[in-house]
Specification:
A hairpin with a 2-residue loop joins strand 16 and strand 17. The chain folds into two domains: about 250 residues, Aldolase class I (TIM Barrel, Alpha-Beta Barrel); about 60 residues, no CATH class. The protein has a nine-stranded mixed beta sheet. Helix 1 packs parallel to helix 2. The protein has about 350 residues and is α/β, with parallel strands linked by helices. Helix content is about 35%, strand content about 20%. It binds iron/sulfur cluster. The site of iron/sulfur cluster has 11 residues, from loops.
Amino acid sequence: MIYVHVPFCHRKCTYCAFFSKVESARWRVDGYVDALLREMEERCNEQAHPIKTVYFGGGTPSILPLGQLGRIVEGLHRWFDLSRLEEMTLEANPEDLTPEYLAELKRMGFNRLSVGIQSLDDRVLRMLNRRHTARQALMAVEAARGAGFENISVDFIYGIESMESIESIGPIDSIAPIISHVSLYALTVEAGTALAVQVGQGRVVLPDEDEVVRQYHALHDFFESHGFHQYEVSNYARAGFESRHNSRYWNRTPYLGLGPGAHSFDGGRHRRWNNPDGTIGEETLTEADAWNEQLMTALRTTRGLPLSALPVGQKERLHRLMQPYIACGWIALKDNHYAPTTEGLLHADGMAAALFV
Ligand code: SF4
């Protein structure tokens, strides 16, 4: 599987701590595509072929003009075996998804879109410094359906302000029937962001934890009653539309990350990443760290942790430590897995930390 990092954005959202440049100058983007093609040539043997999934993330991949996006896709076909490609996703912002752009994406072989809607309330969108309006978001998803995309995911952020009812986030009823996947993220305040400054100065007041948990449950119930099922702490899909690419991350499948800021993983204990300054970072996890990572990832999925994966010397200890979580209803023993319940997913990271070796 391949991840392509596109490090450009039209503007910076207040909450964003990802590496991205507010830039789309032609020469800069051309230079980025040239470097990406060189990296493909140099690193094409680091991944087992054929490639099953490709994910363009950012940044804002849909900022790329079609010509430059086409050069990247051609490069992928040149350097990798994509003959058995199952899923190729583009992260997109609604304002970029014109009918012409969408038709061309389809022609290039993209079969999944992840649209950064975040909210359907114009006031909230302005507060987050998003460029699109709620109407544009709805129109973009409708246009994507019209262009023949069946596999459309949207992102929503909750916990931005108090929410009286599910309708407070906007006409969510109109979007639910035309999407197949949704990612729900609780707003977090990352150091160094505009949001951290606004919160520090008291210009933005975020809801307390109880309200955030209430919103998690309200959104969960809404999507579950509209034909979606939760398969990871932040992700819901209609049957058969779970993200194949992200599911492979959670199964610790090896992946190759291309572009500045992209991470790669060999499926065992070795990780490497591109730094934006052109240098490369690497780490080899200890056996304990690799297991802890696996534990944390597994407890964030509804499938959970397979009993067969428990390290031999740790089995007894882990079975014992799981008992209180089973007793309080956060973990259920299902199909030979320790599977977190809806409530348990809210505590996945805490539970994992308590179980670390
Ligand atoms: S569009 Fe995405 S990557 Fe770009 S600033 Fe906003 S949240 Fe960050």
